[in-house]
Amino acid sequence: MNHTEPESMQPITYSVSKGLRAGAIGGFIGSIVLGITGEIGAIAMNQELFYTTIARKLGFADSSVLGGWTLHFLVGIVAGSLFVGATAAIRRFALTATKKAIWVGILGGIAIWIVVYVPVTAILLPADLTDATFGGGTFVLHLLYGVVTAIVSLPLLRRMVQTKTAA
Questions:
Q1: Of 46, 166, 22, nearest in space to 94 by CA
Q2: Which of 4, 51, 68, 96 supports an S-S bond with 166, CB 3.0-4.6 Å?
Q3: Tens digits of per-residue pLDDT, 50-72?
Q4: In whole angstroms, what is the distance from residue 59 CA to residue 53 CA?
Q5: Hey, which bits of the chain come out as E strands?
Q6: Concatenated DSSP letters for 129-140?
Q7: DSSP of 35-51
Q8: Inter-residue long-range contacts of 112-120, CB under 8 Å, 24+ positions, other chains counted
Q9: Mean pLDDT (whole number) for 104-129
Q10: Residues near 164 by Cβ (< 8 Å), separated by ≥ 6?
């Protein structure tokens, strides 16, 4: 009897370049989810959206809303690309199954929050780092970003990689 796992359950090995490409798409989707969720939070708290404030601080003036969202998507694409590319380089963190993608996504979200969000906020909006509600909320949003990015990237990686099936 010839038993084979379904193609979606077979372990995959992918290159850094494939990880970069899948991560760019996953990061874009992750940034959409983070952005919409952040917008809902900003409305609920009667505050300006963080990306708009950053764009205003960078001199975007009347184009701060468009500029802020554009910067947000660009950072999301680059961060997602580097995050998933790194999972190819560090095989322990390779996205091989949905359950693993969730915990690797959580770790990626934490790393992105520390490496991107905290320094940018410290430079441009340092008071936001002292607000526990805001800091905690952005931390959770970045966890969400990491998980969405990893989960979206996994099926893309599976499609990019030739899997071996028993003949």
A1: 22
A2: 4
A3: 999 999 999 999 999 999 999 99
A4: 10
A5: none
A6: HT-HHHHHHHHH
A7: HHHHHHHHHHTT---HH
A8: 112/79, 112/83, 112/142, 112/145, 112/146, 113/138, 113/139, 113/142, 113/143, 116/75, 116/79, 117/142, 120/54
A9: 94
A10: 10
Confidence of residue 10 (pLDDT cuts 50, 70, 90): low
Closest among 40, 46, 26, 7 to 112, alpha carbons compared: 26
pTM of the full structure: 0.88
Q: What would the two tokens of residue 83 be?
A: 């995050």
Is the pLDDT at 5 greater than 50, yes or no? no
Cβ(107)–Cβ(70) below 8 Å: no
What is the residue-averaged pLDDT of the chain?
A: 90
